């Protein structure tokens, strides 16, 4: 047993060394790594076909390195809110939903006659602030899918932003006639413009962030129209009416897969070994789950500090694939890194393999 422990320690050190080299390579812009999958009980052994492998998930982006034993994952705490056509009622009046998912409907054209000049309201969209303690400052970009029916019309888009309480009254007016776009054209186009959002502390999580979309007509034309198109799933996401780069809590359900290619059952866990710039992470939880179980919380960061650095052992069954998922909420712009070992315990022993996973959170 003593011999085992000593070699395990030596192996652990050599793994850390290789991991450090990887990180240095990564910081030079090329994170291509050689093998550092290593078996603790045979410290010099390199195996070309490990029984448990890492695979890409469907959320965020990831690059899997040699032998599927290490990976770099990129995720972001920034969210987009898409203007949908579905309605909700607040205080007896209709509002449309802003949703985190892109258009999923046939689409709707909000239309108004351009027979007078001035700002014409095209609709009021809302996002309920459930689970959101604040919306930190960031530069938002508004995208408006619009057209006009006569070239004589001159018009642009803009918005009002407010916080509406669940009884329908306005809690706070944030901005009026901001995010003014360029000129609306005859054929449909998606106009974009940035807006500097100032940090807002949520007073009540039942409140709504409300964005009212307007088209302002500066040269009128009778019997002709200006149109705002929303929730059209036939449009590419880049062309849909939406607001991007908002700091809201973000859940990534399937960042990576851990695939047991073997018929033996293994136990796995995550263990943090390094991090940088995590002070901006209000909440970051990295967890395991499969199709049927609940979630196994492995690593937890709250208010910029680790609450849990080592996860509990989790059963990876015969030929099973499980997912690594995460939730992220940041309070400022920046790039945070969490360096993690995926530890894979060899059945019937106390020794384990260590794979390296680097989480990059922007
Ligand atoms: Ca929809
Ligand atoms: Ca305006």
* CATH class category of the largest domain: Mainly Beta
What is Rg? 25 Å
Could you tell me the mean pLDDT? Answer: 88
From N to C, what is the helix and strand string? HEEEEEEEEEEEEEEEEEEEEEEEEE
Poorly predicted regions are 1-45
**Domain module count:** 2
CATH topology of the largest domain, by name, is Immunoglobulin-like
Percent in strands: over 45%
Q: Which shape, going by the Cα principal axes?
A: elongated
Bound molecules: calcium ion
Find the structural class using helix and strand composition. mainly beta
Largest sheet: 11 strands, mixed
Describe it.
The chain is mostly beta strands. It has two domains: 189 residues, Sandwich (Immunoglobulin-like), CATH 2.60.40; 170 residues, Jelly Rolls (Sandwich), CATH 2.60.120. Helix content is 7%, strand content 54%. The chain contains one helix and 25 strands. The longest helix has 26 residues. The chain is elongated. The N terminus is likely disordered. Bound molecules: calcium ion (2 copies). One calcium ion binds next to strand 10.
Describe the SSE topology.
Elements: H1 2-27, E1 52-56, E2 61-64, E3 70-75, E4 78-90, E5 93-99, E6 108-113, E7 118-128, E8 134-135, E9 138-148, E10 154-164, E11 170-178, E12 189-197, E13 200-201, E14 208-219, E15 225-230, E16 242-247, E17 250-260, E18 266-276, E19 281-289, E20 296-302, E21 305-308, E22 314-316, E23 321-330, E24 336-345, E25 352-361
One calcium ion binds next to strand 4.
Could you write a compact summary of the structure shown?
This protein has 362 residues and is mainly beta. The protein has one helix at residues 2-27, and strands spanning 52-56, 61-64, 70-75, 78-90, 93-99, 108-113, 118-128, 134-135, 138-148, 154-164, 170-178, 189-197, 200-201, 208-219, 225-230, 242-247, 250-260, 266-276, 281-289, 296-302, 305-308, 314-316, 321-330, 336-345, 352-361. It contains one helix and 25 strands.
């Amino acid at each position: 047993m003593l011999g085992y422990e000593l070699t395990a320690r030596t192996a652990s050190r050599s793994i850390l060394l290789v991991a450090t080299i990887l990180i240095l390579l990564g910081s030079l812009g090329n994170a291509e790594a050689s093998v550092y999958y290593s078996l603790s009980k045979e410290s010099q052994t390199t195996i070309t076909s490990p029984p448990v492998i890492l695979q890409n998930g469907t959320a965020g982006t990831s690059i899997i390195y040699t032998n599927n034993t290490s990976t770099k994952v990129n995720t972001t705490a920034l969210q987009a809110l898409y203007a949908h056509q579905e309605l909700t009622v607040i205080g007896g009046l209709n509002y449309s939903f802003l949703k985190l998912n892109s258009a999923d409907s046939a689409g709707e054209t909000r239309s108004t006659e351009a027979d007078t000049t001035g700002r014409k309201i095209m609709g009021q969209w809302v996002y309920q602030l459930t689970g959101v303690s604040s919306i930190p400052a960031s530069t938002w970009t508004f995208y408006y899918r619009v057209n006009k029916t006569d070239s004589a019309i001159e018009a642009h888009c803009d918005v009002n932003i407010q916080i509406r309480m669940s009884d329908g009254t306005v809690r706070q007016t944030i901005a009026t006639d901001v995010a003014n776009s360029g000129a609306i054209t005859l054929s449909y186009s998606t106009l974009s413009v940035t807006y500097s959002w100032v940090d807002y502390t949520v007073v009540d999580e039942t409140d709504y962030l409300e964005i009212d979309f307007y088209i302002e007509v500066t040269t009128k034309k009778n019997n002709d129209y200006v149109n705002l198109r929303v929730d059209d799933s036939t449009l590419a996401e880049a062309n849909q009416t939406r607001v991007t780069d908002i700091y809201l809590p973000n859940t990534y359900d399937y960042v990576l897969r851990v695939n047991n290619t073997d018929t033996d059952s293994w136990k796995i866990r995550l263990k943090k070994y390094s991090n940088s710039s995590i002070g901006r992470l209000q909440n970051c939880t990295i967890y395991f789950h499969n199709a049927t179980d609940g979630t196994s919380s492995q690593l937890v960061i709250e208010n910029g500090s680790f609450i849990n650095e080592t996860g509990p052992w989790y059963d990876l069954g015969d030929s099973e694939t499980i997912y690594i998922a995460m939730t992220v909420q940041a309070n400022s712009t920046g790039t945070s890194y969490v360096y993690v070992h995926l530890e894979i315990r060899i059945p019937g022993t106390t020794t384990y393999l260590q794979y390296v996973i680097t989480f990059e959170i922007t």
